[in-house]
Design a protein that fits this description.
Helix content is 45%, strand content 14%.
């Protein structure tokens, strides 16, 4: 008997290989996939403004990147002895005002470049729940522990999410018409919003995405959410918080992603990179032994051979 329901996936067109340039934007699940891509030395960039959970925040980032917005003092604020920006995650916050502004503007320029050059952009939506800063009537990417009374909590409608996605697609395509855009919904459960509220939020995201995906227009959907909910479907695949997928789940979803999106020619290279990475992390009993020195020489030869094919790869 089969005690699992496997999702049947098919390979997509315009697949990813070691000549691809990838940009990942969105929730913390995109960070997990980016770690895998980084480990295997793909040409990838991720979340220039840190983790962003909702579609409006992602639209804002892409709008500002395409238009090369320049952040100034009016775009930041001081709280608890640190400077913050509502458009960015707290990872970018800084005790020095000028350093924060420099970081924001540097990331905007880099994002503009990455949007223009990317072959694949992966956008992961986390939640349809948003916080609107009452003072400016704008939806924020991060609240930065500003008192909750200063925000209105709202659930984005399907119509509004479609509008956000249509806008960001148009912006991306205006600077990079041939790019492949892959949408996913994060399998991370936003239970702080409530169980019912989380389900409603994910439903809005899924419905909106399926209204705008069109393979002919190079707009795709990868079912990371469904793999977690309907294939793995067990608490043993979650971390101890019962909210975030654990390493086993992330590895499984990564394998599914590879089967759909990786060109078959990349798999031998993946193995080479994995061998090198494991070699670099190896801790010898005797670093000065002749055997280990030969091992290091062999490892450097493998690195050199790979870098001749792909000069951007750095170990």
């Amino acid at each position: 008997m089969n005690f699992r329901t496997n999702i049947q996936l098919q390979k997509e067109r315009n697949q990813i290989d070691y000549n691809s340039k990838l940009l990942l934007i969105g929730s913390c699940f995109s960070e997990n996939i980016n770690k895998k891509l980084n480990y295997f030395k793909f040409n990838t960039n991720s979340n220039p403004f840190g983790i962003l959970f909702n579609p409006k925040a992602i639209e804002t980032l892409i709008t500002n990147a395409v238009n090369l917005k320049e952040y100034t003092e009016k775009d930041i604020f001081n709280l608890n002895e640190r400077w913050h920006c509502f458009d960015a995650h707290s990872d970018l916050s800084n005790s020095n005002k000028n350093e924060l502004l420099n970081s924001l503007n540097s990331e905007i320029k880099e994002s503009n470049k990455n949007l223009k050059e990317a072959s694949h952009i992966i956008i992961t939506l986390g939640t349809a729940w948003v916080y609107r800063f009452i003072e400016t009537d704008t939806i924020v990417g991060n609240c930065h522990k500003v008192p909750q009374k200063k925000f209105l909590k709202e659930l984005l409608s399907v119509k509004k999410i479609i509008e956000n996605l249509d806008n960001l697609i148009a912006l991306i395509k205006s600077v990079n018409p041939k790019v492949n855009i892959i949408f996913t919904v994060s399998p991370v459960r936003h239970l702080k919003d409530g169980f019912l509220e989380n389900s409603q939020s994910k439903a809005h995201l899924l419905t909106a995405i399926h209204q705008i995906t069109d393979k002919k227009a190079q707009l795709y959907y990868f079912p990371s959410y469904e793999i977690m909910m309907d294939d793995l479907r067990d608490y043993r695949f979650y971390n101890s918080d019962m909210v975030h997928p654990n390493e086993t789940a992330i590895n499984y979803i990564w394998e599914q992603f590879k089967s759909v999106w990786m060109d078959d020619k990349t798999f031998p290279i993946l193995k080479q990179v994995d061998t090198i990475q494991k070699g670099l992390s190896h801790k010898p009993f005797n670093p000065n032994s002749e055997q280990h020195q030969q091992f290091l020489i062999s490892l450097q030869e493998k690195i050199h051979h790979l870098q001749k094919q792909f000069p951007y790869i750095v170990f």
